[in-house]
Design a protein that fits this description.
Radius of gyration: 19 Å
Largest sheet: none
Structural class: mainly alpha
Helix content: over 70%
Oligomer: single chain
Keywords: Signal, Storage protein, VLDL
Function: Protein component of the very low density lipoprotein (VLDL) of egg-laying females. Potent lipoprotein lipase inhibitor, preventing the loss of triglycerides from VLDL on their way from the liver to the growing oocytes.
Protein name: Apovitellenin-1
Order of helices and strands: HHHHH
Strand content: under 5%
GO biological process, one term: lipid metabolic process
Organism: Ramphastos sulfuratus
Shape: elongated
């Protein structure tokens, strides 16, 4: 039972990040390219809730977030979603350009 709880917490933190980094970033940053902002915020809220109940469990969560597999996986996800964001921005610019040149005749 304890192992499954630890696994669930580790998976939640997989979507999160280190706590100071989460607290320093806004969910609504407009030019933020990675898509991990909302999971980071959720992880921060979970950490804060757990911290109020049990500081030992909160320390476990913080340590789990710093585990090498979690950090490597999170870095990979950020890198790939950033690439997708850039491609999506380029696609939007191309569509705007086509709209202005072909449809509106600018």
């Amino acid at each position: 039972m304890l192992q499954s709880r630890a696994l669930v917490l580790a998976l939640i933190l997989l979507l999160g990040t280190t706590l100071p980094e989460v607290q320093s970033k806004s969910i609504f940053e407009r030019d933020r390219r990675d898509w991990m902002v909302i999971p980071d915020a959720i992880a921060a809220y979970i950490y804060e809730a757990v911290s109020k109940i049990s500081p030992k469990a909160a320390q476990f969560l913080a340590d789990a977030a710093q585990a090498q597999p979690v950090v490597v996986t999170r870095t990979f996800l950020i890198r790939e979603t950033t690439k997708l964001s850039i491609l999506a921005e380029q696609l939007v610019e191309k569509i705007k350009n086509l709209w202005y040149t072909k449809v509106l005749g600018y």
